[in-house]
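Weekly sync, protein design subgroup
Attendees: M.S., D.O., the rotation student, P.L. (late)

Item 1: inverse folding check
M.S. brought a backbone from last month's batch and wanted to see whether the design step gives back something sensible before we order anything. D.O. pointed out we never logged the input encoding, so this time it goes straight into the notes. Structure tokens as presented (142 positions):
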């Protein structure tokens, strides 16, 4: 059984795609694209030297061009706070008196149980408070 060179290059591309999916390392994807380019050269009748040269040139070009752009994009974007971290530092409105023993606030459109950070503080309904922490399902405010 004689398998054409372009089939081997496609098998190599799939083989390089597997670690890309498993490790999320984009370099494997760039090598896989280089293997697909070499498969095209092989299908068009290019010799082994041309195939390897295209594989190397495409792979290196992708790594040289795409990796720095991706690194800049990743570094330029500050981490977005989600979940509990997104609620810290936000303002809320007191619905029911809040003191060290508890109370209710409206935070991000939802009603939350709350308690004052300082045991001596209390906040009356309508007062604006700052959320400093989330303790379980209770917002700690000041």
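Designed sequence read out in the meeting:
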């Amino acid at each position: 059984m004689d398998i054409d060179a372009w089939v081997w290059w496609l098998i190599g591309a799939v083989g390089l795609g597997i670690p890309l999916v498993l490790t999320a390392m984009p370099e494997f994807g760039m090598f896989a694209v280089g293997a697909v380019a070499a498969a095209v050269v092989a299908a068009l009748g290019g010799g082994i030297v041309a195939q390897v040269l295209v594989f190397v040139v495409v792979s290196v070009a992708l790594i040289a061009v795409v990796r720095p752009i991706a690194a800049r994009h990743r570094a330029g974007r500050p981490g977005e706070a989600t979940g509990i971290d997104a609620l810290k530092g936000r303002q809320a409105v007191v619905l029911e008196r809040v003191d060290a023993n508890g109370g209710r606030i409206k935070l991000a459109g939802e009603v939350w149980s709350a308690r004052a950070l300082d045991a001596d503080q209390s906040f009356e309904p309508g007062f604006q408070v700052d959320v400093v922490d989330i303790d379980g399902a209770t917002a700690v405010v000041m």
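Discussion: The beta strands are 91-99, 102-107, 110-116, 128-135, 138-141. The radius of gyration is 29 Å.
Action: P.L. to compare against the previous round before Friday.
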